[in-house]
Write the C-alpha cells for this entry.
Amino acid sequence: MIGLRRVIAQRMSEAKRNIPHFAYVEELDVTELESLRRHLNGKLERGAPTLTYLPFLALALVRVLRDFPQCNAHYDAERGVIVRYGAVHLGVATQTPDGLKVPVVHDAQGLALWDLAGEMRRVSEAARTNKATRDELSGSTITITSLGKLGGIASTPIINAPEVAIIGVNRAIERPVVIDGAIAIRRTMNLSSSFDHRFVDGYDAAAMIQALKECLEHPATIFIDT
C-alpha cells in the first residue's frame, strides 16, 4: 500500500487500536423531517442541488453540542488533556476515488441550513476532485458520516482521531410501526455513533443521541435558537 491508502490504513488502525469505542445505535422516526425536506426541495429551481438528510443532521448536531461540549473535543495525547471547542468544525466523511477523506466545514455553528448544505457539498466535491486545501482537510472537532442509499440497518463508524465522537447515518426506509396502539407507515432511520469511552461516558453518549433524536423527529426545533 502506498500514498493516501497507506495513510488511511495507518490512521484507521491507530484509532481502532488506541481508542476504546463505545457504539450506540438509535432509531429515529424521520417522517416529519422527510416531509419538510420534500417541501423545501419542491421550491427549488429545476436542476438546483437538493437537500439530503445530512444538513439537517449537521444543524441539529450544532444545537445539541451546546449541552454536550465533551463530545465536541480533541484528546491531546502528548499533553494528556481534553480540549473542548466552542466552535463546531464539522468533518464530513467523503468517499473519493483515492479513498476516504474528511473535509471540514469550519464554524458550522454560524451557518443556516442552506449555507450549511452548500458548504458541505462544496468541501466534499473539493475532496473528491483533489482540489481541497490543507485547511479544508484538517481541524475537524466532530465528524458525521453516511453511506447514503447503501447505509444498511446499522454500522460501527471508527472515530476520526483526535476527535472523541462520530455520528453515522443509515438508510431511511418506510415500515409499519405501532403508534398509540395503531399500526402506521412511518419513515425510519438509524443513527449509528461511536464515542471514545475514556472521555465520554455511556450515559452522556446516549443522552446526546437522544437529544439529537428529539430534534430530528421534531424538525421545527432545529431552527429554534434557545
In short: The mean pLDDT is 94. Helices lie at 3-18, 31-42, 53-64, 113-128, 202-217. The radius of gyration is 17 Å.
